[in-house]
Structure formats: structure tokens, C-alpha cells
Amino acid sequence: RMSYTAHLSSDQSGICFGIRSYNPSVSRYCKPRSRSELIQAVLASPRVRHVIQKLSDDDETKKRHLDVQSFRILDDMAHNFYSIHRIRWFAVFVRQLIVKTLFERTLVNEGGLEQLFSTVDAPVVILPTHRSYADFLILSLLMYPYNLHLPAVCTGEDFKAMSFFGSLLRNCGGFFIRRSFGSDPLYWSLFTEYVQSILSNHELPVEFFIEGTRSRTGKSLHPKMGLFSAVCEMYVKRRVSDIYILPVSICYETRLEESLLVWELLGVSKPKESTRGLWKARKVLQENFGRIHMTFGKMMSLHAEIGHSVDRQHHSSRPRFVSGKCDLVHCEESAIQQLAYRIVSEQQKGWILCPSSLVAAVLLQQNNIDKDDLTEKVASLKELLERRGAKIMWEDTNRSSVDRGLYFLRDSVAVDSNSISTSSLSQLRAELSEVPWPSHCADCLTDEERMATLVDASRVMTLVCQQNQLIHLVTFDSLIAIGLCTHGYLQSRYGLLVLCQMLLSILSQEIAIKREKWKQCFENSMLQLEAEGVVVMSDDHSMVEVPSSSVDTVKFLSGVLIPSLMSAFLVCTWLLDCLTSEMMVSSIASAVQNYNLLLIKEGLLTFYETLSKESIKSVVISMINLKVLSQNKDAKTVTLFNRQKLESLHQSLGLITSCRCVERHPAKRQQSKL
User: Fold this and answer.
1) CA dihedral 538, 541, 544, 546 (to 10 degrees)
2) pTM tops 0.85, yes or no
3) How buried is 181 (Cβ within 10 angstroms: 0-12 exposed, 13-18 middle, 19+ buried)?
4) Please, are residues 596 and 611 in contact by the beta-carbon 8 Å criterion?
5) Cα separation, 367 vs 78, whole angstroms
């Protein structure tokens, strides 16, 4: 077990914290330079000159125009080389106004953080999880009391426009990039060279989020390879001898923007980042968001991880700057991608679960539960998760832990005497038996009915986001349990594997596991379930059976992913019935959400999770990857490509979720009003 020490939230006054000694060690290989010198070094680099020459076609006028454009891009992007008074102001502001006011404690495993002291003379890349806007603030703040350099943090340009906050970030190491620039070779070359120049000069650690964006659902996202590949390219092309990578898990008992994220999942647009918006949200300063756990994982050497896959012969015969994007061979790209998924896995291993996640998981499957029963079920779930390597923040007793969990879920659950229920559901979840085709749903919701349903859904989605923090521990257990429940608790081992692979292909956008690892993860879960006595194998290990004593456990595990599969079933239903021409993915998501809203209104559906537009879009993208839908990337539209395969998936999902669509009316269908 790791040892965690409380930091940042101590009783030390803000003034004493701000004026403490701060003199971080400087690498012996670092050549000090100013912000303007860094920009000029990037502009003069062979990579950037090569791209400008290629784009200008040797036209001097175009070349001068591109030079000016490049300077403006870098001036807009680059961080300021901070002075000590800026760092002290940043430390006092963030600690006093955010950390101490909003959170009870910030707990850190010092042993992991102290690895940074041994890598002063090597390039370091810090890769934290990204669940909240507070991530980069808290991580940078933590470096100050440890006498470590604040990292250069890759930040979206949305924050740049925030008058005070944007300036504060830039002065403390933040550099701003566009959300998307893959098709702009000039911007890509400037950005790549900027990051590589900081690392190669050993000036600062570089921090970015390998998931690319905040995870609104609370699940781990698939890694984005752009910036990570650019960093790895430095080692592959021998610009540096090695790079050290430090995965970090930042776990919140409650995220600051939890309610906003839930509404974003339901399709409400994200408010634009602004200082004015931050000021309007000042009422959150009166709330308690619990504890923060920061786990620094094991430092990883790029040389040790991918050195065996580097094709030195290929790169020795080519200039380092031959292309705007990373010029890597297949074996190198594959090794880098595997490493990226391993980093996500390391982040998951360092994740600290809070009681609210376990309480939410139980309440999502059993409403109107007695507190004693809830405590018993939560304790059983805790034991199950700990056997799978979970690290759980727990109070002195199970009852006090449940009470703490209920406190942080107070907006989503109702506690009446000794009974607990989710605020939006008055009955236990029921399985669908029959649902109408979308074109048969003629009624439309009023704005009032729609909003009332979405408010109920937002409470359930808050519980779902809490449950999602533990879902990576039981993903394959849940898939196996679904297969066993579908076939009367008796199924062949091979049949379970095939079913799990089919379901994973549908949920692939929501499960951050590389396809090549699916079978291994399946086997590991089977061994775990067998060791716990949840399943029993036949003598030849070809059949899997659930003993009567484990039926409740299997039902619970299957219930973790059933809502996601129900959402996929309803997406398939809509696609079969209504996708007759090209449509944008966002339009499909809105139409499917409207269909699901009508089903909830009619009492045919109690899974509010199916209203999440992000889940709907994930299923649509999976259908594109499965060649069920065809995508026009230029027009950003999709159309039905393989109806037979879609009908097969629809039938399989209907069997799994125990629901089916009613027989079609023989008359010609009316155009759907959805």
C-alpha cells in the first residue's frame, strides 16, 4: 500500500506559504534563454524552415508572409518564463482561493513525487488524468512546496481569453494550443518544434493530458497519439538519449464542475470559459468537495519501453524534419501506441476510489433500499473491488463510509429516515419487454416535459459518473456476467469469449483497452471469477456455470454495463427505422435522445443513461468502425452501409437486454416526427 501525506491544505497561513524558500535545481544541460529566444529558436529550426519553404514554393512574398504568420502563432502560443514573484502569487492564489476553500485535504504519495528529484538532468513528461479543470492548477501548485520546477503545461486556447486567469496560467508555464490543427502543417510543425525545444534544452518538465480532453463520464478515455507521438519522436530520431514519463492519477471525491459535465452529457452546450463566468460561479466557494488524492506512478523510461522497436537504419538515412507530422515506421507507431495504453492502465492502477462511487453503484441497481442493506452491499462491493487491486479511501467503519458517500450524493438521492432512494426513480428498474419503432411514436414532448425528464436524468447521470470511476475494474466481469445471464447461467467458455468480443466492439469507444488485449483480459477475469467461486468450470473447462450462491453477484455485475447496451439497442432501433439518408452524427444523437425521451414518458424505459448524447455518439462511431455505417468525412455525415449486419446486432442486443421491438405496422410508415 502507498503512503499518502496531506499537503496544500495545512494550517500554514497563505503569507508563510507564499514566502517560503523556492530554489528548484536546474539541469546542468540547460542553456538559459528568454521567451523571445525560445520563439526565435523554434522559427530557425530546420523543421519549421523546411515546412515554410515547402508551403511558399520558393516565392519570397509567400515566405515572408508565412514567417510573420509563424511568429504570431508562436507569440500567441508560448508561455512566459516565470519569475519568482509570479510563482509565489500563483501559489498563494490557487492554494487559498481554490484548494483550502473547496477541498478538505489534498493527499499525495510522496514516494512517487520524489522520483522527480532523480531526473533533474533528463527530459521529463508528466501525464496526469484529466477529470477537471482544476487538474493542471493543483499539479503545478504541488511542485512549489517541493522545490520543483513548475511544468510547461499544454492548455487549450479557450483559457487564453480569460483576462486574469489566462495571464496567470501563461506566467506560470501554461502554453496555449488550438483544439484541432491536424490538417495545418505549419501549425503542427511549430507546435511540435516548440515542445521538443523545451524538452531538448532541459528547461522544464512538460505536462499534458494523454486523453486529450476532460473525461465527462469519469471513465478513462482512449489515448490521443498526436502530442505523445511528437514527444516520442525526439527519442526515436536521437534528439535526446532518453525521456522519462511520469503517469499521475488525480482523484476527486467530487469534481468542481460535476453538474456542468452531467448537463454536457445530456446535450447542453458547454459555457464558454471566461473570467466573468468564473466570477458567477463563486457560490461554489461555499461548498465542500471532499478530498483530492494524487498518485504519482512509477517513472517510465522511453528507452526501456520502446527502444527495441526503433528502426535506426530508417532514420539515419533521412533528415529529422522530412515531414510536418511525426515520420515513424509501423513498428515504432505500434510500440508507441502500446505504451500510451499502458500509461492509461498505470493511471487506472493509481486511482483512489471514494465511498460515493461504491454507494452510487449499488443505488443505480437497487432503489428504495434500507441503509443497513445498503451498508452491507457496499461492504461486499468493496471486498470484490479490493480483490481486483482497487485502492479505496475508507472511513473507520462501513456505516460512516456510506454516510460520507451519501453526503456527496445528496443532490441525487433522497434519505427518508432509514430509507434511501434515487431522487428521480420511484420504483426499481424494470427490463423492457416491447418498445415501439421510432416512426410509430407520433407524440412529441413539450418543452416542460422534456426539461423535467432531463432534470431527473441529470440526477441519475451524477450517480453514473461516480460509478464510472470503478468500471475499469469490473468491465470484463460485467461482460461475462451479461453472457451468463443471457443463457440461463450456463454457457460455453468459447461462446462467452465470442459474445464479449461482440459487445466490446459495440462499446469500444467507452472502454480504453486495446483490441489485442481483449482475450487476455477475458481470461484473467475468468480466472478471478473462478477463484472467487462466482463461476464453476466443467472438468474440461469448456463450460461455465453460475452456482446458486453467486446468482446475486452475477446479476449485480451484469447490471453495471446493461444500461450502455440498452443505449446501443435503442440506437440500432432508430438507425434501422429512420436512417434513410445522410445525417450528421450530432443530428442522429439528438433524434435518438428524443426517441428515448418519449419511451421514458410512456413508462416503457427507466434507464435514464440512454439520454446521454455522448453514449449515443460513441455507439454511432462504433457502428462506423464496424462498417455498419458509412462516413463521409468531408461532409461529416453518415449513412447506412450494411443493413443486414445492423439487424443482426439489433437482434443480439435485444436478446441480451431482454427486449424487442413490436411488429411493424403493415401500412407504409409515416415520416418520423423525431
Assistant:
1) 50
2) yes
3) middle
4) yes
5) 52
